Structures are given as C-alpha cells and as structure tokens.
Amino acid sequence: MGVIKKVMKTGLGEMGFNKGGGPVNWFPGHMAAASRAIRDRLKLADFVIEVRDSRIPLSSTNEELQPLLAGKRRLIALNKKDLANPNILPKWLRHFESDKQDCLSINAHSKHSVRKLLELVELKLKEVISREPTLLVMVVGVPNVGKSALINCIHRISAEHFPVQEKMKKAVVGPLPGVTQDIAGFKIAHQPSIYVLDTPGVLVPSIPDIETGLKLAATGSVKDSVVGEERIAQYLLAVFNSRGTPLYWKNLNDRKKELQGNGSEGKHEYNVKDLLPNRRKPPDDSAVYYIEDVVTEVQCALSDSFSKFDGNVDDENDMEDLIELQFEALQKAFKIPHTASECRAKVSKKFLTLFRMGKLGSFILDHVPDTGKPVSDFDRVPDTCKPVSNLDHVSDSCKPVSNLDHVPDTYKPVSSKIL
Ligand SMILES: Nc1nc2c(ncn2[C@@H]2O[C@H](COP(=O)(O)OP(=O)(O)OP(=O)(O)O)[C@@H](O)[C@H]2O)c(=O)[nH]1
Ligand SMILES: [Mg+2]
C-alpha cells in the first residue's frame, strides 16, 4: 500500500491531479443544496439505507452524513457486488458486523438480491410498521453508487404486490455521477403507506486523502474530468502491479490458450459493422467475442510488460517506469495509432471502461481494516474460491462463498407488508 501512496504523491503528483498533493474538490451547486435538503429530511426519516460501492466499502462513505445517521435505524447496502471480489466481500460484511452495523451486499439490478434487503428493512421496521400510518425510508450515499437503480428495483418489486394504475414513475439511472439532482419520493406500500426517497449523491466538499479521491474517481463517484482519466488509469495500474495482478492474468490466459490448443474453442469471428452500438438489440455473440478478445489482449499486454520488467515495483520510480511501458502496451492492445490526438486520454478512457464494466476482473480497492483479531475458520476462504495466487482475484470458476450473501436466518421477514 505504501508504494501506491508514494507513487501518488511524487510520480503522479506532477501530472495534473492534485498538484502539490491537494484535496479533490467536486462539490457542484446541486450537491451543496442537496446536502442541506438531505440533512433536513433525515430528521423525518424512519429508516435510512446508506448505499456504498462494494469495491470501496470505506472510501464510499460520506463522512459528513455519519453523525446524522448514527442515531437512526439504518443499514449499509454494499451495492454493485457483482463487480467486487466475492472472496473478500464476506470479510467486509463481518467487519461491519463486528462494528454492530447492519450491512448487506447487493446487486441493485437483481430483484432476488433487493428482496433480501427489503426483508431486512422490514424486520428492522417491524415495531414501527405496526403503529405508524406512514413511514419514510431514505436512500442516501455518494454519487453513482446505484441509489436510483435500487429505488427502481424496490419499486418494481412493490408493484408486483400493489399494482399501480398509472404509468409507474421511474428514477433516472445513468453511468455518470450526478444524475439525480432532486429528492424524489416513491410510494411502495399501503397500510402503512411507505415512501422511499431517492436523493442526489453527495460528497464532502473536499476529499483530503488523495487515494480516497482516486478510488472514488476509479469507481465513477467523482467526475472523470475532476481528477483526469489518465491519472485514474495510472492509479489502477499502480494498484494492479503492486498486487501482482498481471501474473494472475498471465496464468488465466495461459490456461485459456491451452484450452484453445485442445480445440475446445476456435478463433472468434466477428464483423466490425455488427459491433456498432445498437440500443434496441441485445449484443450478439460477435460483440461479446470482440470484447472478450480486447480484454485478453489488454491483460496479455499488461502481464507481458510486467513479466519482462526487471525493476522493483516497490520502488516508486521503477513503478512509474513500468506504468509508462504499460501505457505503450495498452495503446497497441487498443490499436490506437501513436499519431492519434489525445492518444493517452483515449487509452485511459478505454482502460477505465473495461475496469468499470468488471471486464478485467472483480476487485475491492479498499483494504479491510486490521482489527488485530485472530483469523477464525469462518474467515478462511474455501478451497474452491482460492485465487490462483494471492492476488485478490476471482477466476471464472470461483463462485462466491455460499450463503454469505444471504440474510442470516435470524432476519426472517416478519410480514409481507413492504413486499
Ligand atoms: N454492475 C452494476 N451496476 C450497477 C448496479 N447498481 C447500479 N448500477 C449502475 O451504476 C450506475 C449508476 O446508477 P444510479 O442508480 O444512477 O446511481 P446513483 O447513486 O443514483 O447516482 P447519482 O444519482 O448520480 O447519485 C448506472 O449505470 C447503473 O446501471 C449494480 O448493482 N451492479
Ligand atoms: Mg440517482
């Protein structure tokens, strides 16, 4: 970890982001207004779902909201669990559990996953549900963690039980941070009436820790232009190199090649014309193969440069040299000509897109705080889930630890009023 910090402060510090090591400031007008409005509404909320990004369970905390949430019934929803390393995620759940904090990992696009969250909310609200005619559940969190996607999923689930006459109101969901700019309410149950409030994503006015800022940018909670795509890509490369990730990719692709050698998979065929975006059609096989091939090329480019590099990745200058070589390798893998304008920006953009789509693998960028407690058997990852090396990865065959995504048995739903 130390080396990443050093690289950020010295090597990458000269390149635009936080010249002189200053904080990340992204606090547009709507966010300042929303922060005030959220504070006011929180006083009225019966329950708060604090959505965080599973890839950065701590860095996606809004520290300024914490004192206001402390006195509330609340739970932390670690969303986008499909993008987070399933070997590490259970450790985070246990971390929050040991802090007496209700926490669940979810995928806001999955009704199955969101139903489990609703079961827990219902359990926590059991006593209030029986006496209050109206309840307010607020969904808060930093930008782009999936608050609106979660609300839409809750709404879809509730519509199965309380069919709505008029066209169902939907929260706007989008890949960039700052999509929701106003607080909006969605009714999800009658008797008692339960309203869920979608809120704009809010950050603290200033993020003093460089690495926290970079993690938020890498996962899309801070606008790319605030930090700079190139810098974010460099940060991710530094993380991957310091974890030895390229070696994992090498093993993975060597195995793939072996399989192809055995004739189990031929070369992929695709027509570039068919790959042009078409929002109406789901991607066909050729588009899927195309992305798979690009991913393989990117991983091989990074692992080749990593293997050939004879410097020391613990040395910040060597790490910078390696990242420089990897940028050149990436440019070739993405087939971007040297002469292209803004060549490095294009490389960075494509690399970030693959990372954010989870195509490079599932990662958790934060480290579980070391509480000094001994590791119990329960903490050990089952053999089937062991990564190829100690690299923090999941191979395709790695299924998440069974049951750990489930609400514990004690959290049985009490009634089905919310659902
Ligand atoms: N892979 C994955 N993507 C998700 C998940 N939940 C949401 N997303 C995507 O994340 C992006 C942001 O989702 P939103 O629901 O708009 O996020 P938000 O927190 O409301 O964002 P703001 O309104 O900007 O604060 C969208 O592209 C969603 O499709 C999830 O569980 N997994
Ligand atoms: Mg939103």
UniProtKB/TrEMBL annotation:
Q: Which Pfam families match?
A: MMR_HSR1
- Report the GO molecular function annotations: GTP binding; GTPase activity
- Mitochondrion is among the record's keywords: yes
Its lineage opens with:
Eukaryota, Viridiplantae, Streptophyta, Embryophyta, Tracheophyta
**GO terms under cellular component:** mitochondrion
Provide the CP-type G domain boundaries. 35-205
> Example GO biological process term?
mitochondrial translation
Q: Does the keyword Hydrolase apply?
A: yes
What name appears for this protein in its UniProt entry?
A: Short integuments 2, mitochondrial
What is its subcellular localisation?
A: Mitochondrion
- Keywords, sorted A to Z: GTP-binding, Hydrolase, Mitochondrion, Nucleotide-binding, Transit peptide
Xref: PROSITE patterns: G_CP
Question: What superkingdom does the record give?
Answer: Eukaryota
